[in-house]
Hints:
The protein is an alpha/beta fold and 281 residues long. It contains 10 helices and 11 strands. It has helices at residues 8-28, 44-60, 75-87, 106-112, 124-132, 140-151, 171-180, 195-199, 245-248, 262-276, and strands at residues 4-5, 34-40, 63-69, 93-96, 160-164, 184-188, 204-207, 225-228, 232-233, 239-240, 254-255. Strand 5 (160-164), helix 7 (171-180) and strand 6 (184-188) form a beta-alpha-beta unit. Helix 1 runs parallel beside helix 10 (262-276) and helix 6 (140-151) crosses helix 7. The longest helix has 21 residues, at 8-28. The radius of gyration is 19 Å and the shape is globular. The mean pLDDT is 97. Residues 141, 164-167, 169-171, 188-190, 192, 195, 208-211, 229-231, 242, 262-263, 266 line the site of nicotinamide-adenine-dinucleotide (NAD).
Amino acid sequence: MSYQIIDGKAVSGQIKEECRIKAEEYRKKGTEITLAVVQVGNDPASDVYVRNKKRACEECGIRSLSYELPEETGEEQLLELIGKLNADKTVNGILVQLPLPDQIDEKKVIQAIDTKKDVDGFHPVNAGALCTGEKGFVPCTPAGIIQLLKRSSVEIAGKECVVIGRSNIVGKPTALLLLAENGTVTVCHSKTADLKEVARRADILVAAVGKPKFITADYVKEGAVVIDVGIHRNENGKLCGDVDFDSVAPKCSAITPVPGGVGPMTIAMLMSNCIGSVDVE
Ligand code: NAD
């Protein structure tokens, strides 16, 4: 079967360009959109993510403020900074790069962020809004998955959607968004009895398992659309996803590659959330 490669790089480029135009419009009206990026410690993976986020801000004409705190920073100190950023009217979005060092309670920090500046969409108020269909910030990776599907003209309404993974950051919000788009949604996880059987029902299969090349051809129905959220680096430093691309792709109608699929969408949707944060009253 010939399959379409869903090009996350191209789609994320379009979204960032739309953000750049909107940021420029705001600037002309006197508002400089500003994202505060807070990092505690020097986790190498976080360093890369933070650098990429700042670079995307530059591309989109969004001002980024950088707060790099030492590894031994205490919870109170971080909460104090969040309080200051919440009160600062020139700051539209606050992003605290996760994971945080062990001495800091991540939940407490997320809950301290003003819900109107919570551009990661991790605050329980925004998670609740997603659940009940109210306006709020949507986590970036799930929002990116929906944009990829829509902008690749993949119909979601009425389709069997299977999400493998139930994390608060990816699996659960993705399932809720697919449901909001009128998909018929099943969420699978590590205790799912017959994963292959369930996955094979999917017209749209989202793999957010966190295991390299876990999804092989026998998990996939002929003609399915497969979205691979996983990011892994093998022993040679090469990136791969949760999906075994070479065996799965020939069975699909469309599939996201790794790299160049969901990954670039996450940052594009962060930019989009920053723009959206200006309108939140
Ligand atoms: P996680 O570890 O929090 O969740 C993994 C989920 O997979 C769990 O809910 C678990 O129940 C399920 N699972 C694990 N083993 C399973 C099995 N054998 N059968 C069925 N389900 C199983 O991971 P996460 O934060 O949701 O991330 C998932 C993947 O996506 C990771 O590879 C991560 O690196 C990647 N990720 C990518 C982006 C991006 O921007 N592209 C963003 C976030 C996460």
